[in-house]
Amino acid sequence: MTEVEVTVDPAQAGFDEVRLQRIDRHFTRYVEDGLLPGFLAVVSRHGQIVHVASAGKRDVEAGAPVETDTLWRIFSMTKPVTSVAAMTFVEEGRIDLTDPISRWLPEFAEPRVYVKGPALAPVTEPATEPIRLWHLLTHTAGLTYGFHYTHPVDARYRAAGFEWENPPGLDLAGCSREWAKQPLVFQPGREWNYSVATDVLGRLVEVLTGKPLDEVFAERIFGPLGMADTGFWTAEHDRLAALYVPTPKTGRIVRSDQLGAVGTRRPDCFSGGGGLVSTAADYHRFTQMLLRRGELDGVRILAPRTVDLMTANHLPGHVDLEAYGRPLFAEMPFDGFGFGLGFSVLIDQIKAKTLSTPGEYAWGGAASTAFWVDPDEDLTVAFYTQLLPSSTYPIRQELRQLVYQALVD
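-> structure tokens emitted (409 positions)
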């Protein structure tokens, strides 16, 4: 399956078709105003595709339109895939959520934690407990990202070559060793911080199997689910959407071929935190597997209880990210949202100021892609475009409003 198309009358799935058209009109204005190159949105309920909206170009300069089989860099929407892969090993008893990762990644055997001082000469202390698998899955390990620009350890990541890209020639094993050399920004388990934790998780999966991450994904997820167009790179460059960034003064898009090289060739590092290229049809199958609690078309990837555990709020005290996380960039809002094992989890729709349903779980990607799964409404939604960074416009909040105002049953 390489394309997505409507498979049910919206009214039969509880939607007002006229109201669904507001999705098309709203985001088409972004395209007409030069703020997005193009977009594709897919709404599904009860296992049927209810609405597909698209407009604009996958490559503005080439005049190539967005099509339903367009390939997109999904960046951090890779993280749920890596998390699912890791949990298949938990189910097999090969690793436990409480296991120290140093058992497989010895570079993390004696982590140090930042206390004070400048990036060049930080004062550190020993970690009071080891980094565990659970910490990686929940972003509570104390790792960070170089692009945060808020902490001396962030600057150390940048100095080591980690910001939006990784150092050339360094594979995932090498990246993991370099991250382990840096101090943690807090003691493991004490806070939440969006970070390279899922990349380290991907490396852990490689060590568990003795195989590169792309092979693990193909064997455990993509092959069984029929996700033939998803991988760390594609040779079909004509189908791959170009990547754009906003100009500082006007917000109008400008092409970024340097960052757009991601996904066009085999990478040195298989980034479990942000490296995949996929299509709407492929990722739809992944979200349907999640919605069905681990199974799709007779193929079971995870047990129902495992999916339930992954999509529950794991933050201590069941608080939201605003209370437990650092007020930094992430792919979802902090107010009213907790975090599970690889997903944000809506816990308070009033605090979040959203029409969505408590229990919804989601994540997004750096190029403004996003998805969510709403188990109560038996609903999945995904949005694809290629605008970096994802914090440029409130696309995700607007999409939620537009989808739920059309749900009328």
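The mean pLDDT is 96.
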